[in-house]
Amino acid sequence: WKAMVQPPLERLRECYHPVQFEEDRGGYRLQNLLNREAIREEKDFPAVRCFEAALAFLDENRESDDWFLQIETFDPHEPFMAPERFRRDYPTNYAGPILDWPRYREVEESPDEVAELRANYAALVAMCDHYLGRLLDHLDAHDLWRDTALVMTTDHGFMLSEHDWWGKNRMPFYDEIARIPLMIWHPGHAAAAGRHVRSLTQCIDLMPTFLEIFGVPVPAEVRGRSLLPLLSDDRQDRAAAIYGIFGGATNVTDGRYTYFRYPRDLFDQEIFEYTLFPVHMKGFFAAAEFEGARLNRDFDFTKGLPMLRLPARRDAKRPPTQGGGFAEAVTAIYDTERDPGQLQPLDDKDVEARLTRLMLAQMHAHDAPPEAFERLG
Questions:
Q1: How far is CA 347 from CA 243, 333, 335, 351, 356, in A?
Q2: CA distance 260 to 264
Q3: CA distance 76 to 126
Q4: What's the N-to-C CA distance of the chain in angstroms?
Q5: pLDDT at position 186, please?
Q6: What local confidence, expressed as pLDDT, does residue 283 receive?
Q7: 262-287 burial string, b = 16+ CB within 10 Å, else e?
Q8: In what order do the strands lie in the sheet with 241-244?
Q9: How far apart are CA 124 and CA 120, in angstroms?
Q10: Which helix (DSSP H) or strand (DSSP E) does residue 213 occupy?
Q11: Are 246 and 232 in contact (CB under 8 A)?
Q12: Which residues fall within 8 angstroms of residue 108, CB to CB, at 6 or more apart?
C-alpha cells in the first residue's frame, strides 16, 4: 500500500518487538510497518475504511433490488492493531516495544508478552464489533431488515497460545482454528430469529445459500448445500465435514468427534498440485516445479476443463508456515462433548473406524484424487 524507498529501519527497530521487526522487503512484516506510518487516526484504519465504503454503498443502493454486498475487512487478522480507545479496555503489565503480531510457532513469549498479544487481539475484535454495530444501526435506521438477508462468518480461527501455539497451519486443526462463527438473518424466516441451529455446516454452503436467495440454480457438481432450509427445520442432514490444509492432516468431524489423520510420512509423500494458474501466495511457480507436469481431466468440478497436474515440491513457497513445517503431527481423535479443549486424545477403535468411513465418504464425494487416499494409508 505505501511505498518507501529508504525506510527508517533503525527507528522502526526500536519501536517494534524483535518478533515482528524485519528488514526483508520480501516479507509482509516490513511492508506492514511502512503502512502503519500512514495510519494516524481511526479513520485511517483499513477496516474502518472498509465499513465506511460499505455504508456509502448502502446509502446509494439500498432502495434498489438484486444487489450483493460482501464486506471483507481482513481484521481481526494479525497484526492486532486497534485504535487506543479500544485498547485501553484491556490493560496489561507489558512495558516493551509494540507487540501485536506473533509468529506461527510454539509459544516462547513471557506471560506478560502473551497477555499483551491477547489484549491487542481483544481490542481489535472490539473495534470490529463496534463497526459491525454501525452497520446494524444502518439496517435499523432504514428498515432494511424487512427485505435484506445478512450473513456473518469468517474463514478460520487463530491460536492465541491455546495448546501452546500461535497462529494456524502448522499445528493440528484444533477447534480454535476450525470451528468458526456463522450468523444468518433472513426476512423470510423472521420467526426463527435468535435460534441456535445445531446442524453441521461449512463455508462451502455459503455459495449455494446465496444462489438460492437470488433464485439462481446451483450447479450439479456443488457439494455444499443451501442453509436456508435449516432456518425453519434444524435437521442433521450432513453426516460429516472434512477440512485441512494441503499436505497436512486430513480432518473430519461429525459434530462431536474430531479426527486428525496424518500421512504415514509427512516428509515423503507423493502429492500433486492441480491448477491452471501456477502461483503460490507471493509468486509464480519456479521453472523446476513444472518438471513432471501433465494435463488432468479427472475432476467433475472443472466441467471438462483440463488442469495442470504438478508434482508438489517440499521446497515450494506454499502455505504461510512462518519459520517451520508441520508439527505435533500425530493422528488423534477428540470427543469435543466431554473434552471441549481437545486435551485428551481418545483411544477407541470403533469410533476411529466409523470416522474413517465418514472421511472416505467425504473424500469420494469431493473427488479426491488417488494420492489423497494413498498418503493416508
A1: 21, 7, 10, 9, 14
A2: 13
A3: 9
A4: 46
A5: 96
A6: 84
A7: bbeebeeeeebbeeeeeeeeeeebee
A8: 241-244, 250-253, 257-261, 332-335
A9: 6
A10: helix 206-213
A11: no
A12: none
**263, three cell numbers:** 500421512
Task: For residue 320, give Cα distances in angstroms to 19, 24, 27.
Answer: 16, 16, 11
> Cell numbers of 131, please?
463497526
- 180-208 burial code (b ≥16 CB/10 A, e <16): eebebbbeebeebeeeeeebbbbeebbeb
**What number of helices (H) and strands (E) belong to the chain?**
9, 11
Three-state DSSP state, 238: coil
Strand 332-335 to strand 272-275: parallel, antiparallel, or no bridges (unpaired)?
A: unpaired
Which three cell numbers mark 50?
Answer: 472498509
Phi, psi of 307 (to 5 degrees): -125, 155
SS3 at position 100: coil
Where are the extended beta strands (E) located within the chain? 150-153, 159-160, 166-167, 182-185, 241-244, 250-253, 257-261, 272-275, 294-296, 307-311, 332-335
Q: What pTM, to 2 d.p., does this model score?
A: 0.94
Q: In order along the chain (377 residues), what is the average pLDDT of each group of 10 residues?
A: 93 96 88 95 97 98 95 96 97 98 96 98 98 97 96 96 96 97 95 91 97 96 94 86 94 97 91 93 89 93 92 79 82 98 97 98 95 96
Distance CA 55, CA 256 (A): 39
Cβ neighbours, 10 Å, residue 92:
17
Residue 301 vs residues 49, 221, 304, 365: alpha-carbon distances, Å: 36, 6, 8, 11
Contact 153, 183 (CB under 8 A): yes
Nearest to 197 by CA among 234, 156, 166: 234
190 vs 150: CA distance, rounded Å: 12
Secondary structure class of 274 (helix, strand, coil): strand
327 φ, ψ to 5°?
-140, 160
